Amino acid sequence: MADPIIRINDLKKIYHVGDIDVQALRGVSLTVQRGEFISVVGPSGSGKSTLFHILGGLASPSAGSITIDGENLAEMTDSGRTHLRRTKVGFVFQKYNLLPTLTAMGNIEMARYFGGKSGELDNGFVELLKLLGIHHRLHHKPRALSGGEQQRVAIARALVNHPAILLADEPTGNLDTENSNRVLSVLRDLNERIGQTILMITHNPEAASFGHRTVHMRDGRIVKES
Fold first, then answer.
1. Rounded to an integer, what distance in angstroms lies between the CA atom of residue 106 and that of residue 202?
2. What is the pTM of this model?
3. Which of 13, 39, 47, 152 could serve as a FRET partner for 126 with CA atoms 20 to 30 Å apart?
4. Alpha carbons 169 and 40: distance in angstroms, whole number
5. Spatial contact of 151 and 181, defined as CB atoms under 8 Å apart
6. How many CA within 13 A on the CB side of residue 186?
7. Which residues have a Cβ under 8 Å from the Cβ of 91 and sit 6 or more positions away?
8. CA-CA distance, 186 to 55, in Å (whole number)?
């Protein structure tokens, strides 16, 4: 079997709030194979978002080891984590975070710019835009797009630099049932058609069922995998 794309061992994260130490992660261990689709569930405060922030290079661990696509995050400098975010990890958030003054294509191009890419879009990404169903909406600004379309633009933006891993934090939290199902189907298609590794936080059991397996978190620990 090939080396896992993510290997986490006894990961801990402590936040210092005044004189109080808050243990956000209390020894998380997890292995993710390349091409897996993992759903991460748990109540608020269970450590899900903290885990994603560390995976995405937005925060550094307090202890333990974490390797992403062969790189050790614990040994990275701030610039190294920035490079990780721009090249190996794509983020999709609940609130889309699209720039309202730019078109859909402008938002995607901004991500390309920060990733050090320029020139014509490659054929693979053009096909991805068709898969997402937004290739005909690229010249519209976010206010002219539905919530589902905005989220699919956000997915395209996250994938434009071909990251090894896609982190989706409650990607359907602001969507109605129809748009939620469409976004989830797109994520599953991305996983099945191009082998995209996906980790998704969700509170919705139906959304969690789109993944290959579900990781349950509570009180900063993984308590079950199913």
1. 28
2. 0.91
3. 39
4. 9
5. no
6. 28
7. 56, 85, 158, 167, 168, 169
8. 22
6-225: what fold? Rossmann fold (3.40.50)
β-pair type (71-72, 20-32): unpaired
pLDDT tens for the chain, 226 residues long, are: 678 999 999 999 999 888 899 999 999 999 999 999 999 999 999 999 999 999 988 888 999 999 998 888 878 888 888 888 888 999 998 888 899 999 999 999 999 888 888 778 888 888 889 888 899 999 999 999 999 999 999 999 999 998 999 999 999 988 899 889 989 999 999 999 889 999 999 999 999 999 999 999 999 999 999 9
Query: Cα(209)–Cα(39) distance, rounded to whole angstroms?
Result: 8
Per-residue burial over 85-117, b if 16 or more Cβ lie within 10 Å, else e, is bbbbbbbbbbebebeeeebbbebbbebbeebeb
Residue 20 CA to its chain's centroid (Å): 30
Return the ∠ at Cα 51 (arms to 197 and 28), rounded to 5°. Answer: 100
How far is it, in rounded angstroms, from Cα 122 to Cα 136? 17
Residue-by-residue DSSP string for 138-194? TTS-GGGS-HHHHHHHHHHHHHTT--SEEEEESTTTTS-HHHHHHHHHHHHHHHHHH
